[in-house]
Each structure stands twice: as structure tokens, then as C-alpha cells.
Please model this.
Amino acid sequence: MTATTARPGRPSWTTLVPPVAVLVLVATWTRHESPWVLTLIAVLLVGAVLAAVHHAEVVAHRVGDPYGSLVLAVAVTIIEVGLIVMLMVGGGDGASTYARDTVFAAVMITLNGIVGLSLLVGATRHGLASYNASGSGSALTTVVALASVCLVLPGFTVSEAGYEYSASQLAFAAVVSLTLYVAFVLTQTVGHRDFFLPVSSDELGRMTGVLDEDGDGHADPPTARAAWVSVGLLVAALVAVVGLAKLLSPTIEDVVAAAGFPAPVVGVVIALLVLAPESIAAVRHAARDRVQISLNLAYGSAMASIGLTIPAIAVASIWLDGPLELGLGPTQIVLLTISVVVSVLTVVPGRAKALQGLVHLVLLATFVFLSAQP
Model:
């Protein structure tokens, strides 16, 4: 991922939004019932999420891999966990399943939405979308293992009733998730870095090599001063996101309920918000015939959503009241299984037509529709 910088003397919106969001958070902490105030909070919440991811990218680019990848993943995870925890603290009909619904929505959006859009754009503009099946395959394998341990198995264990893990099982799943995530980051950035670089291809879309124009696979890193400014703005944006989410959480639930949608739709809304910047970046890379980067973003986001969010929620559950249901229902398991099978068939050849992108987008549309109309 690359980070953009503003022109000298002209602060960008990513510089202005975090401090403004913090000021509005402080000013409206005790009084935020007005529809106009809630609208302002919602706009600033979206802006703070986008700004936080931007500044995380700047910091990540400065420190380099593998630490840079962890900076970005941790920032996105803080946003996701903050939104989930604030909704769980507020109670509501779906409080016990918000973590599951959000993480599952993130997996479906990444496997089908980001991948589908990237393949559709890349193949439409360049004839065929080409990528390294070895790198993308190992990423997909990690995502499937994480999803199985954290989202599928809780519905089949017998230590707890329903779709819950026992305390020891939850701790085990958290440790395993974190271990898999760290192992993949080290594989991607240290052990087998070439497998995750953009590829060159022949006229039939077959991979012929990797592209690494300047020797490091990245644009020139920002200055130390720019990176430190981004660190401060990143902290401000994360504080604003968590605080504004707390103020807005009852409204999100009320709007979903007023529209007649079930509680899992809240998780879909959170995942769409958190993954919006990654989706935009992935499509831009696909348009430049760098579909490998798009897949890195998609599968990396899915891994972070499970491998970092579940451990964080597991720790937070020590202080949160009520059950934590992680197991997927039958319909969700079927959708996940179909998505995995289609993803495997997409990744293995190392090239894809626009049709395959459309297939993934149809699966995403099916997931969204069945979430709203189960």
C-alpha cells in the first residue's frame, strides 16, 4: 500500500479530521441527542476511520516490513474492536453475536467483495488478471484455518451450550489465531517475500516473473518528521473512532431495527466501514494491473480481522458481561464453504477472467441479502 502526502502549506483532510473529531467528541460527550449532532458524529466517525488507516499506512511505510504490516493491521484491528466493544457494552438484542457477525462479514467482504472487484476491474482492463498462486494460496489457506477455528468449531463443541467456546477453548483459539497471523506476516515479509510481489505475465495471463521496479517493492518512504506527525494523528484518530462509536452505537442499532433488519446487519455495517479504505486501495491496484497487491490486501485484511480481533475480544470478554457467541449458523457455514471452494478455484490457476470476479460479487450480494432477509 502506498501513502499519499499533501502539498506543502495545504493541510489535507486526513490531517484536519482527527483533531476536529477529538474536539467534537469532547464537546458532545454529555449532550448528543440532537439528530444534527448525531449526523455530524457519524460523518466524523467515517472520516476518522479513513484518516486512521491513511496515517497507519504512512507510519507502516516509514518503519518498513515486517513491522509496517503489523502497524497497519493493529490500527485497523483497534478500530474494529473499538466499534464491536462499544456496541457490546451498549447491550441490545445482538450484543452477544456482534463480534461473530462483524468478523464473518469482514471475511465475506474480503473473500468475495474485495477479491471480486479486483478481479473484475483487473481482467476487464487488462484482459486477464494475473497473480502468484503460491503466495495467494498460502494466504487463503491461513484465512480458512483461522475461520474454521474461530467461527465454525464453536458451534460443534460440547463444553458450552449453543455457539460459545468455554474459557479455555476461547483462550486456545486466541493463541492459535495470533500465532497463525504472526507466522503469515513473517512469511510474507521475510521468508518468502517474492511470492507476494506483483507479477509479470505473457499474453495468456501466465505468470512469467515478479515486478519489483526499485528493488524494494515500495515507493520512497516518508520523512521521519512526516512519520511522527502521522503517529500523533493516528493516535488522535483512534481515540476519536472509539469515542464516537460509543456515542453513535445506540443510533446504529436503532436505525437497523427501524429498517426491519435483524441484528447481524449491524456487523455488516461495521465491517463495510472498517474495510472501505482497503477496498478502494485494492481496486486502484487492480486497475494498474497489480492484482497480486489487491489479493494481498484482501486476504491480509481477512487474516487481521480474525487473527487479531478474536484475541482482542477474548481479552475484552473478561470484563464484558454476557455470553460471547462465535459459532456460525447453518446458513453462514454454507456461505463460507461455498466462498472457500470458489476462492480455491480462483487462486489455483494464477490467472482469472472477469467472470470469476463477477462470481465472487454474486456471493457477496447473496451474503448481504440473506443477512437482511434470513
Q: What stands out?
A: The domain at 14-372 is CATH 1.20.1420.30 (A middle domain of Talin 1). Residues 1-6, 213-218 have pLDDT under 50 and may be disordered.
